[in-house]
């Protein structure tokens, strides 16, 4: 039972109703209970009616990423989408998984999208729509003056994006990255954050003119690191590499060295996640990026005892990552613990003449929790007296 006052407060608090997340297993359970689609749509409209601000909608109901028994009939999905599009003028952020008929539903939108600031579209076509001469691009986003963030998991030529105003873009290429895709990226002149996932390789050749993203501060690449050779990024501060494999010992260090030299940028934050390189390659990479202040090594085979030895400050020896202040590392095994703690101790010196920056924070993801519980409490107390934070999970 809920008292009348609390019920009134709940119904009138728009923030309680401004997010609608339709998940496949919830909708599947509803259909199995024989709840009519009419009742479902009425409930959806009631939610929207109670929200007086921008609406955030996420429809993760269909697509090959879902198991067959979790998918719902597309007819139901389309009816839900039709209902949602009637309120498109109040969209704040939208995340959709769609098919060709859904594209037609979105094309039916004629009103402006004044509140839309974030969009994510995953398009799983049964056939290649670019081979269909009657297929037209989705152009409704030209009416979204506030749109600054987009995640597109479909060929860029299918959606007309407001290139100039976008500041954050993620593009997933499920087919080989071609010269056409390369040229399509050239229009996004004001991007500050770019995330590219190339899961099916790169198919060149590309034009000789490099892409000049003059305002880009963060670049994230999943596979496809070869594209770094075709970019000029003078404002780059953060580099994220995920699931990358390299053919030679010097490929990644050379790619980063040439990018920095060509762009005259200072990469301060480096994030490596499941990157297949050796400890020697990692040392060469860190040596090529002396401006790093924050380093993340996530599920990296190269995270070995030798790396912590190389990061340890020894007066008179070549300094690796001298400006390091924050570090995040996973897979810290027993044989690395002593070298890891020694690395920290040598970089806590606050003396003005110290050749390295004072380390401020380290976050750990460890393999052997029991061993670390015995070591960390004592050292955490000692380190905390010097203003240092050592977190572990």
CATH superfamily of the largest domain: Ribonuclease Inhibitor
Mean pLDDT: 83
Radius of gyration: 25 Å
Tally of discrete structural domains = 3
CATH names the topology of the largest domain as Leucine-rich repeat, LRR (right-handed beta-alpha superhelix)
Number of strands: 16
Note the main sheet.
Answer: 14 strands, parallel
Number of helices: 11
- The CATH architecture term of the largest domain is Alpha-Beta Horseshoe
Distance between the termini: 40 Å
Low-pLDDT parts are 64-70
Global geometry? globular
Tell me the series of helices and strands, N- to C-terminal. Answer: HEHHEHEHEEEHEEEEEHEHEHEHEHE
* Strand order in the sheet with the most strands: 1-2-3-4-5-6-7-9-11-12-13-14-15-16
Q: At the first level of CATH, what is the class of the largest domain?
A: Alpha Beta
Report the structural category.
alpha/beta
Question: What share of the residues does DSSP label as strand, in percent?
Answer: 15-25%
Helix content: 25-40%
């Amino acid at each position: 039972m809920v008292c009348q006052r609390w019920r009134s407060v709940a119904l009138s608090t728009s923030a309680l109703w401004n997010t609608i997340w339709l998940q496949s297993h919830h909708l599947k359970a509803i259909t199995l209970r024989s709840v009519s689609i009419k009742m479902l749509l009425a409930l959806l409209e009631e939610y929207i009616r109670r929200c007086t601000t921008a609406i955030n909608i996420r429809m993760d109901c269909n697509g090959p990423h879902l198991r067959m028994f979790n998918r719902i009939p597309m007819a139901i999905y389309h009816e839900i989408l039709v209902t949602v599009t009637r309120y498109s003028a109040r969209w704040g952020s939208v995340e959709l998984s769609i098919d060709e008929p859904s594209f037609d539903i979105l094309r039916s939108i004629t009103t402006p999208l004044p509140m839309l600031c974030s969009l994510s579209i995953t398009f799983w076509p049964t056939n290649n729509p670019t081979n269909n001469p009657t297929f037209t691009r989705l152009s409704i986003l030209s009416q979204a003056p506030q749109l600054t963030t987009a995640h597109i998991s479909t060929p860029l030529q299918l959606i007309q994006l407001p290139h100039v105003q976008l500041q954050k873009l993620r593009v997933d290429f499920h087919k080989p990255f071609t010269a056409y895709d390369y040229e399509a990226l050239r229009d996004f002149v004001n991007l500050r954050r770019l995330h590219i996932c190339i899961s099916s390789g790169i198919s060149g050749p590309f034009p000789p003119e490099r892409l000049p993203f003059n305002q880009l501060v963060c670049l994230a690449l999943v596979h496809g690191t070869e594209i770094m050779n075709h970019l000029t990024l003078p404002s780059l501060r953060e580099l994220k590499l995920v699931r990358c494999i390299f053919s030679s010992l010097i490929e990644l260090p050379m790619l980063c060295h040439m990018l920095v030299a060509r762009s005259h940028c200072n990469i301060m934050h480096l994030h490596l996640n499941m990157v297949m390189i050796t400890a020697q390659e990692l040392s060469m990479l860190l040596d090529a990026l002396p401006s790093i202040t924050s380093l993340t090594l996530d599920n990296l085979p190269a995270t070995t005892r030798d790396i912590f030895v190389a990061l340890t400050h020894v007066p008179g020896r070549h300094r690796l990552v001298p400006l390091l202040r924050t570090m995040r590392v996973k897979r810290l095994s027993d044989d690395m613990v002593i070298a890891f703690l020694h690395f920290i101790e040598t970089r806590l010196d606050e003396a003005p003449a110290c050749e390295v920056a004072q380390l401020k924070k380290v976050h750990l993801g460890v393999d052997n929790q029991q061993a670390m519980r015995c070591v960390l409490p004592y050292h955490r107390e000692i380190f905390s007296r010097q203003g240092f934070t050592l977190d572990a999970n």
